[in-house]
Amino acid sequence: MIDVQYIIDFIPKLVSYLPITFKIFASSLLLGLILGIGIALPRIYQIQGLRQLSALYISFIRGTPILIQLFLVFYGLPYIVGLFGINISRMDAFYFVIITYTLSNAGAFAEIFRAAVKSVDYGQTEAAESLGMTSTQAFVRIILPQAFRVALPNIGSLAVSSLKDTSLAFSVGVMDMMGRGETLITATMKTLEVYIGLAIIYYLIVLLLEYGFKLIERYYNRHTRMATVEG
Predict the structure, then answer these.
(1) In whole angstroms, how far apart are CA 133 and each of 84, 127, 128, 145, 159?
(2) pTM assigned to the model
(3) Mind telling me which residue stretches traverse the membrane in this protein (predicted)?
(4) Exposed, middle or buried, 63 (CB in 10 Å: 0-12/13-18/19+)?
(5) Which of 16, 33, 27, 12 lies closest to 163, judged by CA?
(6) Where is 1: in which H helix or E strand?
(7) Which CATH number fits domain 4-230: 1.10.3720.10, 3.30.870.10, 3.30.390.30, 2.160.10.10?
(8) Is 151 buried (19+), middle (13-18) or exposed (0-12) by CB count in 10 A?
(9) Average of per-residue pLDDT across 1-28
């Protein structure tokens, strides 16, 4: 029989480790966005050589489970940099997790960003350049804001997915909410109660995250329409 009191007692103990989960989530999402844009550019501008590497990278990220990627980074990165005489074997597992999720998010962001940019009419770039803008200025001022609006729903979905994926960080020894849950299971043998507590916390966070992205999307769409009318 499920002991509800245990669930109530476990939730505050699990929530106390929420900041670690958020650090992994926020850091990897921001870094992944920046890296993802860089990975997408060779495919957008058809840069030979780099375009193929970008496509291969995205294909690998999309075709392998995040848990496998985590183990590849955790065990493989120390080996690779060790070939150059650098020892990172004692580096905190927390940083390996951030590196993994950054690389994984970058692959997803690259595809989202590429598709969003392609959805914007290229004629707008030509019109901006005819007014004296450089290609970079046209991209930043004209194309990027519109692409961001198109990409927002997919960015929100990726953020939710990334948050849930952070639950695997405990598999390499990071003491986040999931890691704390495993220690509570070991100490109390209340497996179901711990997982119910974790499910409640993750579900509430996801609801808040989805609501936040809906507000951002609504605000951005309204701001874009106002700018268009004023223009």
Answers:
(1) 45, 9, 6, 16, 34
(2) 0.88
(3) 20-45, 66-88, 94-117, 194-213
(4) exposed
(5) 27
(6) none
(7) 1.10.3720.10
(8) buried
(9) 94
